[in-house]
Amino acid sequence: MTDYSPFSGRHRTPHCEIELMRTLWTMRSAVGRQITAAIFKVATGRELRVALGDELLESRLSRTDDGPLEGRALEIQALLAARGWSDVP
């Protein structure tokens, strides 16, 4: 889908800045695949991204603080640990 503005009569290119604030954890499966959880600063607030390589598995947005994002990251980490994933030092 294009980003069309009827006021300009042409396509607009959205300006998105995404900045990595911090990586919360990285976990590895028995076959060597890695999942990473990190918090990014985006135009609309802070975003938790959980990714398996280049594939985004989950994204959560917070407009206030990192508490809810960190809590969700801990839930996912515990779930992965219960399924045999291990922390990467």
Task: Explain how this protein is built.
By secondary structure, the chain is α+β, with helices and mostly antiparallel strands. The chain has one domain. Helix content is 18%, strand content 46%. It is built from one helix and seven strands. The chain has one helix spanning 67-82, and strands spanning 4-5, 10-11, 19-28, 34-42, 45-52, 55-62, 86-87. Strands 6-5-4-3-7 form a five-stranded antiparallel β-sheet, covered by helices on one side. The radius of gyration is 17 Å and the shape is elongated.
What are its keywords?
alpha+beta; 7 strands; 18% helix; elongated
Question: Can you lay out the helices and strands and say which pair or pack?
Answer:
Elements: E1 4-5, E2 10-11, E3 19-28, E4 34-42, E5 45-52, E6 55-62, H1 67-82, E7 86-87
Antiparallel strand pairs: 1-2, 3-4, 3-7, 4-5, 5-6
Can you give me a brief rundown of this structure?
By secondary structure, the protein is of the alpha+beta class. The protein contains 1 helix and 7 strands.
